[in-house]
Amino acid sequence: MPVVRAPLAWRRGARRGADAMAALAAGRRIKHDLRGGIGGAGVASAAGELRALLDVDAVGLAGLDGPLVWSGPAVPGADELVERVRERDARVARDGVVALPVHVHDGLAGVLVIEGDVAGGAAREAAAWVGEALERARLEASAEVAEQAELRALRAEISPHFVYNSLTTIASFVESDPERARDLMLEFAAYTRHSLARHGDYTTVAGEFAAIEAYLALARAVHGEKLRVQVRIAPEILPVAVPYLALQPLVENAVRHGVEATGREGLVQVAGEAQGSECVITVEDDGPGMNPGYAAEVLAGRGRPGHLGLVNVDRRLRSVFGPGYGLIVETAPHAGTRVVLRLPRFQPGVVAG
Q1: Domain 158-344 is of which CATH architecture?
Q2: What does the alpha-carbon distance between residue 207 and residue 192 come to, in Å, rounded to a whole number?
């Protein structure tokens, strides 16, 4: 059977397309390898990717201090070139070896050393790739630090007043109704265990609501008939993964500002349902409400300290799921407050621990 070949131009175009795809894949792997920085465990793998991509004899990477990490045979005298780049923040070349500065935000972050026949443009592009990978790693690390700080702030916001009232209420039942005192103590243990949990970044809607039910049991014991609660959660959203303390602070906020603030009877309603590929949860109270302009200030981080939970939950949701998600606050003076939380039912990389 005769062999049918594509026209030469097509074959060249296919090769160029394959080369471009290979370069993009290598770029992704380099960014992954350098997520721990030039001093991280993946630096040797990143050097190997660059060596294969550039088709050269050896590639070395070094930070602002510390030794070169090589893919291929170490080049004699390369350490001297690295020191010169660190001192001058400029490209240095000698005997088929070139050392280039790696920049992050126009600041020197490391040195790339290449031995072999490579075009100047390709060498500069490789150094730029390394710089972009380091910048991405820095941003991701900063985002993770910020998220953990906000989670710690939410944990620290557990109201001492609520804890005191809960324990006092439990103590009041020890003699008159020891069975109820025992049940409330178990609810208190479940509430504090979830609020102070240190394992993993995510739980499920079911896990979050177990803590919410414990909190509401304690709140009803403290407030008695003044607090009425309605909870309606569709079973299909119970396995959805959510960041820890994404829902509990919203319910606590509704009780604190919707019922405790008025001193009269109040209703807190919690509802959750699936809407297509999204999960929508609402927390509503019939308390005094607030000016919509102030609600916007709260979500922007400019509200009073008592609303820290709302802004932290909003920021964490947007950080994890993207800017299209987060909280919506619907409120008006003397009209109560309704907080809507919307998040995807499935998100790559978000798995409950």
Answers
A1: 2-Layer Sandwich (3.30)
A2: 13
Share of the chain above pLDDT 70, in %: 79
**H or E stretch covering 109:** strand 107-115
pLDDT-derived band at 307, boundaries 50, 70, 90: low
Euclidean distance between CA atoms 319 and 310, whole angstroms: 14
What are the structural domain ranges in the chain?
Answer: 9-144, 158-344
Asked if 234 and 272 touch (Cβ cutoff 8 Å), the reply is: yes
**Whether this model's pTM surpasses 0.70:** no
Domain 9-144 has CATH 3.90.1640.10: no
Spatial separation of the C-alpha atoms in residues 216 and 211, rounded to whole Å? 9
Identical fold, 9-144 and 158-344: no
Spatial contact of 309 and 247, defined as CB atoms under 8 Å apart: no
User: What does each C-alpha distance from 9 to 6, 22, 39 come to in angstroms?
Assistant: 8, 20, 44
CA distance 109 to 62: 9
- From first CA to last CA, the distance across the chain in angstroms is 58
How confident is the model over 143-187, as pLDDT tens digits? 454 455 444 544 445 556 666 667 787 787 777 888 888 888 887
> Among positive and negative, which fits the CA dihedral 231, 235, 239, 242?
negative
Structure tokens at 215: 């909190």
- Residue 234's pLDDT band, with cuts at 50, 70 and 90, is very high
Cα gap 173→261, rounded to integer Å:
26
* CA 126 – CA 89 distance, rounded (Å): 16
